[in-house]
Amino acid sequence: MKRIFKNGAGYRAALNGAKYRAALNGAKYRAALNGAKYRAALNSAKYRAALNGAKYRAALFVLLAAVALPVAAESFPEGDVVAYIDAVDAVNLPVNCKAKMAVVDTFASGGDRATEGFFVRKDNKVVWVATAPASQKNFALLRNEDIFYERFATTNKVVKTSATANARGGETSNLDLTRFNTNLDYTVSYKGEETVDGKACYRFELRAKNRKLAYSLVQQWVEKSTRMTLKKAFYAVSEKVLKYYTVTGAELADGRIKVIDMKYVDALKPEDTSSLRIYDITALKSIPDQFFTKEYLESGRLFPYDF
User: Fold this and answer.
1) Are the beta carbons of 204 and 85 closer than 8 angstroms?
2) Hey, is 238 helix, strand or coil?
3) Which of 52, 118, 176, 303 is deepest in the core (most CB within 10 A)?
């Protein structure tokens, strides 16, 4: 009986051990299963995260691509921009003409001065001659396409100069006094509609065609109803505004300017200004070519206004 009890105790121990191992194995199984489920869930979460990341990157790529695409240029309401700008220039001055010009320079430091003169234009050629004061009489500036010459009033010497130079001082450069063909010097693009002093205008951006010009960028506002330029802003290569002018008065007849007053302002020193008046604008049928040569300036026999 004693042996049987022992055997019974051993049996029960063995059975309990088997149950324990079964329970342990079950626990391991469940742990393994739970681990597998965890890893599956984790992998699923990673997959979703990766998928969401991929979707995010795809969305970001589309957004960046959209930003990188050039914005379509706004269509000009009146058709061809180049032809329109030629028409604007024609409102300001006939292709062949003469006109008188008066300039008053005002400086913050004092010493204001006034200059009077006239210019003659033949297409892309311009000669500007000072008639007053006496100290500046027969000072002259010549532009023949992209070539510039200056005649000194005191020495009568003629030297080559440039569009960027400021031969007579003040806020008007050589180009300001001789630039009457916009498309010759600049590539023009339309930038939309704005108002200047309550007047509806088209705004254009002018980019210099070469580095010889005084300004690499110009903004131009043209009144829609008259095709008259009301304002211009002039920029350096860095696109920092250097100066601007606004039209302070004008008289038109038959769709053309007869008298125009402009005020140039130094953007860095607003107290320094140049007020310019162009008047007595007269269209001409023919103009002697000799006006537009270096030899003409050197001769000293500058033609009077009433030639």
Assistant:
1) yes
2) coil
3) 176
| pLDDT tens-digit series, residues 260-301 | 999 999 999 999 999 999 999 999 999 989 889 999 899 887
Q: What is the CATH number of domain 81-299?
A: 2.50.20.10
**Measured distance CA(232)–CA(242) in Å, rounded:** 11
- Would you call 254 exposed, middle or buried from its count of C-beta atoms within 10 A (0-12, 13-18, 19+)? exposed
Separation between Cα atoms, residue 14 and residue 46, nearest integer Å: 46
Quick: pLDDT tens for 219-233.
999 999 999 999 999
pLDDT digits (tens, 9 = 90+) for 145-188: 889 999 998 888 999 998 888 887 888 888 888 878 899 889 99
Distance between terminal CA atoms of the chain?
155
Least confident among 42-56, 74-88, 104-118: 42-56
DSSP state of 200: E
Q: How would DSSP label each residue in 10-35?
A: HHHHHHHHHHHHHHHHHHHHHHHHHH
State the Cα–Cα distance between residues 52 and 268, nearest whole angstrom: 53
Question: What whole-number distance in Å separates Cα of residue 205 and Cα of residue 34?
Answer: 70
Burial class of residue 30 in the structure, from the number of CB atoms within 10 Å of its CB (0-12 exposed, 13-18 middle, 19+ buried): exposed
| Pair 159, 147: CB distance under 8 Å | no
